[in-house]
Design a protein that fits this description.
Blueprint lengths: L1 H50 L4 E4 L5 E4 L1 H7 L3 H4 L14 H14 L1 E9 L5 E13 L2 E11 L1 H13 L3 H7 L3 E6 L2 E5 L1 H7 L3 H6 L2 H5 L7 H12 L7 E7 L5 E13 L2 E10 L1 H18 L4 E5 L5 E4 L1 H7 L3 H4 L10 H4 L2 H11 L1 E9 L5 E12 L4 E9 L1 H26 L3 E8 L2 E8 L1 H7 L3 H4 L4 H4 L2 H15 L8 E6 L5 E13 L2 E10 L1 H45 L5 H28 L7 E3 L1 H11 L1 H6 L2 E6 L7 E3 L1 H23 L2 E10 L2 E8 L6 H4 L19 H11 L3 E6 L5 E8 L2
Parallel strand pairs: 22-24
Antiparallel strand pairs: 1-2, 1-5, 3-4, 4-5, 6-7, 6-10, 8-9, 9-10, 11-12, 11-15, 13-14, 14-15, 16-17, 16-20, 18-19, 19-20, 21-23, 24-25, 25-27, 26-27
Length: about 775
């Protein structure tokens, strides 16, 4: 027996465990669905925030502001540009309460805050009241930001102040009110206004003198339990609906329908019930008339409801009850807010006010069935004047199938947009061109990349024909291809053309088009790639080949020059050893010296032009720089450039490829010469070598125009150049950077505009 019991307990525990696992799996599936819904809704978030009528701002965990919406800017007077990145205390906090608000903000940023009223100050110094709600946004268990929503309650606060001021006049207003007001205490009437006296048929004096049994007799016998039962329950503190209807008995015995709005108050130091009473006898007659027409309305397939201006349902047809799962009795106790989904409930009051203001509106909403399921509806609502009062009549149509069709269309559009985005991600601009009354090839869609390539904004491009952007040399052919494609012809794929940017510059592009349709009209869809960089590479390859040819030519010329130079040097030496006149001797010395200098230049040129294997050997950096300067000596002399050298003679040798470092030094020197000559037709170049710890530093300082601050971080980028078109490729300094980095060193520049530039090369001592 014990074993059987143990087995049963074990089976029971296993069943509980199975149920728990099933529950967890269901919860996980639900969470995945929620996450998918959240993901799909992210694209709407920015639009919702920007169009929200409520001021909203978003703060990072460190309290710095990351976003404010237009409503926030409008209310406070502060712009997003002014506020972005600002931390607490925020500029709208009054100085006298800033510390108190800061403490509340710290608490709220961790735990959230609901409906907290705060007094803030606008940019112009004007005070305003807002109701603050805020939540910390947690994504993947990480506090990402704090979302704060404001509701401007300045007018409400003013109204509350006015209400407090008016409380002194309350009794006088009650006395003059058209609504009956009565206070009942211990089943005796202790206060009644003139309106209630008129409703009941008694004078005020008579009402105050009635005995408890006479007061009870003012209620219809069938409603005694309802009225006096709620009277007792309210005095006992039980939750009782404040509003209800009952039948009253006038002094003359006539029966009338009354609507009671009851509340528990303290009167004369004792609890009492205060009632605001309206004669609704005419409304009841109207409701009876509506019931007579109910059979006709119940034949309708759409839901039809009628409710008062506060949203309390007074009629609904059978379709309303059938589609929502409620009985008529249940719905007659409901407010229209109970019919909508939770997320739409807060909007009901605003929509009721809109209907009253405009008279008739058509809008979309979400209704909820009794089982909690939600379905989309289209509502046509209008006010109906019944003489003494106004009601709202609504025809409600289930648009579930319509929404499914819209969703399918959206999905199709999203797939189409994904294809467009694909082109964007792979670096291609996407355009759609249509022909209309304004001309051919008009933009009807442009991507961000096309805006970047052309320099025009998207809005500007929508008013421009594609033909207007094409260089005149390519325009006619492009128009011809467009016209053929719009006729449905299939043309070869890629081709190149040149477009003109907004600033007038030219950009080579590679284009391919496809015939399609857009909004039921023919469209030419183009994928366009900026091939400027590719063209630069092609040109650089040409330049590289040309330079190689020049190197071969220079080598050949140098060899040809060596032979006559050798003869000049040899014969001048022979003549100097002979007995010749002094003036002739001096001339021969000049010839001999200049011939030797020319021979050295030829040897340097051969050394620089010759191909070398990448070989690192011990080298003297001073000697390498001198060789580079010797190569430029003539150009420097011609252009009035003074060279000052401050070489540290005690520098140790470094292990490096001397020929590659000479390339670095020559490039730096040539750049300095160019910009100094461009600036003022001459210049001064100061070259310094020194030891700095474990590195040898070579600096080249010129007195040229300097480098703009925005250009400093780009000087070593490939193809970046500030020289005129045709004067530079933008590759020299990037190659220098690569060579120095390969040697384990560092190259950088210091410069101020109009104060020259200094290029510094640091090489490790090895």
């Amino acid at each position: 027996m014990k074993e059987d019991n143990a087995k049963k307990r074990l089976l029971l525990e296993l069943e509980k465990l199975r149920q728990r696992i099933a529950h967890l799996e269901a919860e996980a599936e639900k969470r995945l669905q929620i996450e998918e819904a959240l993901r799909q809704s992210e694209e709407y978030s920015a639009t919702i925030l920007n169009h929200s009528p409520n001021p909203i701002f978003v703060a990072n965990p460190d309290s710095s502001i990351r976003y404010v919406n237009p409503a926030f800017e409008s209310l406070t007077g502060f712009s997003l540009v002014e506020l972005i990145g600002q931390k607490t205390p925020y500029p709208w906090w009054p100085e006298e309460t800033s510390d108190e608000i800061l403490e509340r903000y710290k608490q709220a940023s961790r735990h959230g805050v609901k409906a907290k009223e705060e007094l803030f100050r606008k940019k112009n110094g004007e005070n305003f009241w807002v109701e603050v709600t805020g939540i910390p946004v947690i994504i993947n268990d990480e506090f990402r930001y704090y979302l704060i929503n404001w509701t401007d309650i300045t007018q409400r606060k003013k109204a509350e102040e006015a209400l407090r001021e008016s409380e002194k006049q309350y009794r006088a207003l009650v006395e003059l009110s058209l609504q009956g007001v009565v206070v009942v205490q211990d089943f005796r009437i202790v206060f009644a206004n003139a309106a209630f006296a008129e409703i009941s048929g008694y004078t005020v004096k008579e009402l105050l003198s009635l005995q408890p049994q006479e007061v009870k007799a003012m209620i219809h016998p069938e409603d005694q339990t309802l009225v006096w039962g709620r009277f007792r329950d309210r005095l006992m503190g039980k939750p009782v609906p404040p509003q209800y209807e009952y039948r009253g008995i006038r002094k003359n015995g006539a029966v009338l329908w009354l609507e009671m709005f009851a509340s528990c108050i303290e009167y004369g130091g004792k609890p009492a019930i205060q009632g605001a009473i309206i004669d609704i006898s005419e409304r009841k007659k109207l409701e009876d008339a509506l019931h007579l027409r109910a059979n006709l309305l119940n034949e309708a397939t759409d839901s039809i409801i009628a409710h008062d201006l506060d949203g309390n349902l007074i009629y609904m047809n059978e379709a309303t009850c059938r589609t929502r799962g409620y009985s008529t009795e249940e719905m007659l106790t409901m407010n229209v807010k109970a019919l909508v989904s939770p997320r739409m409930a807060d909007a009901v009051n605003g929509r009721l006010q809109r209907i009253q203001k405009e008279g008739a509106v058509t809008l979309e909403s979400e209704h909820m069935r009794k089982d909690g399921s939600v379905f989309p509806v289209e509502v046509y609502a209008r006010t109906v004047n019944l003489g003494d009062r106004t009601i709202i009549l609504s025809v409600i149509r289930d648009i579930t199938e319509h929404k499914k069709a819209e969703a399918a269309l959206r999905e199709s559009e999203e797939r189409y947009r994904a294809l467009l985005d694909l082109g964007e991600r792979i670096g291609e601009a996407v355009v759609m061109l249509q022909d209309d009354e304004r001309g051919i090839g008009r933009h009807v869609y442009v991507s961000e990349e096309w805006s970047r390539i052309t320099g025009y904004s998207k809005e500007e491009l929508m008013d421009i024909s594609m033909a207007d952007l094409i260089h005149p040399k390519d325009r006619q052919e492009a128009i011809r291809r467009h016209e053929r494609r719009m006729r449905g012809e299939v043309l070869p794929g890629l081709y190149e053309l040149t477009i003109l940017r907004k600033d007038g510059s030219e950009v080579p592009v590679e284009v391919t088009y496809a015939y399609s349709s857009y909004k039921a009209q023919k469209v030419n869809v183009g994928y366009i790639r900026d091939i400027s960089e590719r063209k630069k590479m092609e040109e650089q390859l040409i330049v590289t080949g040309r330079l190689a040819s020049i190197g071969e030519l220079a080598s050949g010329v140098a060899h040809e020059l060596n032979n006559p130079l050798t003869s000049i040097i040899g014969f001048s030496e022979l003549l100097l050893n002979k007995d010749i006149p002094d003036d002739v001797r001096e001339d021969l010395k000049v010839i001999h010296r200049e011939a030797q200098r020319t021979a050295q230049v030829v040897r340097n040129l051969l050394t620089f032009a010759r191909k070398h294997e990448t070989t690192k050997k011990p080298m003297d950096i001073n000697q390498a720089i001198k060789s580079a300067l010797d190569l430029r000596a003539y150009e420097q002399k011609v252009h009035n450039i003074e060279v000052v050298t401050n070489f540290d003679a005690s520098l140790p040798e470094i292990t490096a490829d001397i020929f590659r470092l000479q390339q670095v030094f020559v490039n730096i020197i040539i750049n300095a010469e160019y910009f100094m000559v461009q600036a003022h037709g001459k210049g001064r170049l100061t070259v310094t070598t020194e030891r700095k710890g474990d590195v040898i530093r070579a600096s080249f300082a010129d007195d040229g125009p300097g480098i703009r601050e925005e250009h400093l971080r780009h000087v070593f980028d490939p193809f970046f150049t500030t020289k005129e078109v045709g004067k530079g490729t933008g590759l020299g300094l990037s190659i220098c950077h690569g060579i120095v980095t390969e040697h384990g060193g560092n190259i950088y520049v210091k410069s101020q505009l109009n104060r020259g530039a200094t290029f510094i090369v640091d090489l490790p001592i090895k």
